[in-house]
Amino acid sequence: MRQKLGPKTRTGSIEKWVEVLTAPDYEMYELFQKWVGGSDPVQIVETMKLYVSLLMGDVDDQYKASFGNDPDLRLNIRHVGMVVATEPGKCPWVELQIVQIDSKPVNYVGRKTYYDIEGLDIFTGNIRDFKKTVQFDVAVHLTGYADPA
Where is 24: in which H helix or E strand? Predict the structure, then answer.
């Protein structure tokens, strides 16, 4: 007699941590400089750190909520550091021209999305240097760039 197989069961819970390094560009620094209303770089960067940490906390909460039906599965997002461009030209990966694919912006969930392969390669190379001092799983470039269109 053939035995009916049921779904596989897990033995124990699974918990994973994703460590995120963020890299805000100079445009974002300028945006926060306007919000803070001053020119003290320490205050500007501290405000940026607070904002990005709150943002990462929200992402962490979203993941926790999405796995709410499975108490044995946990995905945790942790913001481990920030590389801030406090002067123009300090983000070589965004100094390149933003390109559009086939002369049309890529559309992602109704939003215009641009990408630049050469810029991504430069970003990867520059961020890789930080692996020597900061342990992280993924790096995220944050921009204050506003599309003029």
Answer: strand 14-24
SS3 138: strand
CA distance 66 to 116: 32
Mean predicted confidence (pLDDT) in 50-65: 88
Neighbours of 85 (CB within 10 A): 19
CA–CA gap between residue 91 and residue 120 (Å, rounded): 11
Return the DSSP state at 104.
Answer: B
Q: Which pLDDT score, from 0 to 100, does residue 10 have?
A: 54
Pairing of strands 111-113, 106-108: antiparallel
Bridge-based pairing of strands 14-24 and 73-82 is: parallel
Q: How far apart are CA 85 and CA 142, in angstroms?
A: 11
Strand partners, 104: 101
Above pLDDT 90, what percent of the chain? Answer: 21
Tell me what pLDDT residue 66 has: 78
